[in-house]
From TrEMBL:
Record key words, sorted: Hydrolase
UniProt cross-references to InterPro entries, sorted A to Z: HAD-like_hydrolase_sf, HAD-like_sf, HAD_sf, PGP-like_dom2
Species this protein is from: Paenibacillus oleatilyticus
Name of this protein: HAD family hydrolase
A Pfam family reported for this protein in Swiss-Prot or TrEMBL: Hydrolase
GO MF annotation, one: hydrolase activity
Length: 226
C-alpha cells in the first residue's frame, strides 16, 4: 500500500512512550502487583526486574507477562492483569502519572489546526481511557476515538488501526508512536509514520523504518509545515 505523506486529516497516537510517561504510573503499580501476588500465594521470590515490564511496553499484555513471568501459568498472568489495571486506576485517581513535556499544548495546537486526533494502544480499555481522561485531554480527541486492544480484542495493532480508519472513513492519516508495532501498523495501513525517539523503551533498530523521527513531541507541528 503506498504511503501518503501529504498533510494529514488525522493523527493516530500510541499512548505509552509517546504521549504518556508510562513508568511514572506503571512502576509503583508493578511492585504493588507482585506484593499482592505473593500475598495470594500466586508468586514466590523477588519481583522481576523492571527492565522486563519496560521492554514489553507497546506489546499486548499477554506477551508482556510472558516476558516478566515466563514460568507462571496463564491464570497468574490474568490475575496480574487485573491487579496491575486496578492499581494503575487507583494511582490515576491520586494524580499519579505524567505526560511528556509539551504533549498537552502540542495536542491543543494540532486540534486548533483541524487535525482529527485518535489513540491506538495495545493497552486495556480502562487504562487507556483513564489516562486520557485524567490528564484532561479527552475533549481534544475524536468522540469514541480512543481505541485499545483491550476493548476491540484485536491481535495486532495493524488490525486495531485498520478498524479505526474504516470506522471514521479516514483516507489520510499519520501514525505517531515509539515502537516497531506502531511502524508496522502505520505502514500496513498506508500511513506516514512518525517515530518518537525519546522514551527509551524501544530496542535498537525499532524505528529504523519510520518515515521521520522526532526527539521531542513538540517537534510534531513543524512537520506539518515541512
Amino acid at each position: 500500500m503506498p504511503i501518503n505523506k501529504t498533510t494529514p486529516e488525522a493523527m493516530i497516537f500510541d499512548l505509552d512512550g509517546t504521549l504518556f510517561q508510562t513508568e511514572t504510573l506503571l512502576l509503583p503499580a508493578y511492585h504493588a502487583t507482585f506484593e499482592q501476588l505473593r500475598a495470594e500465594g500466586l508468586f514466590q521470590g523477588e519481583t522481576p526486574d523492571e527492565k522486563y515490564i519496560l521492554s514489553g511496553l507497546g506489546m499486548l499484555l499477554e506477551h508482556i507477562w510472558q516476558l516478566v513471568m515466563p514460568d507462571a501459568d496463564a491464570a497468574v498472568h490474568r490475575r496480574a492483569d487485573e491487579l496491575l489495571l486496578e492499581l494503575q486506576v487507583e494511582g490515576m485517581a491520586r494524580g499519579e502519572g505524567k505526560l511528556y513535556d509539551g504533549v498537552a499544548d502540542t495536542l491543543r495546537e494540532l486540534h486548533r489546526r483541524g487535525v482529527r486526533l485518535f489513540i491506538a494502544s495495545n493497552g486495556l480499555e480502562a487504562y487507556v481511557k483513564g489516562v486520557i481522561r485524567n490528564q484532561g485531554l479527552e475533549p481534544l480527541f475524536e468522540a469514541g476515538g480512543l481505541y485499545s486492544a483491550g476493548e476491540y480484542a484485536t491481535r495486532s495493532k495493524v488490525d486495531l488501526v485498520r478498524q479505526l480508519l474504516d470506522k471514521y472513513g479516514i483516507q489520510n492519516a499519520w501514525m505517531v508512536g515509539d515502537r516497531s508495532s506502531d511502524v508496522e501498523a502505520g505502514h500496513a495501513n498506508g500511513l506516514f509514520v512518525v517515530g518518537c525517539d525519546y522514551a527509551g523503551f524501544r530496542k535498537e533498530g525499532e524505528l529504523d523504518r519510520a518515515d521521520v523521527r522526532i526527539a521531542d513531541f513538540r517537534d510534531l507541528p513543524a512537520l506539518l509545515e515541512a
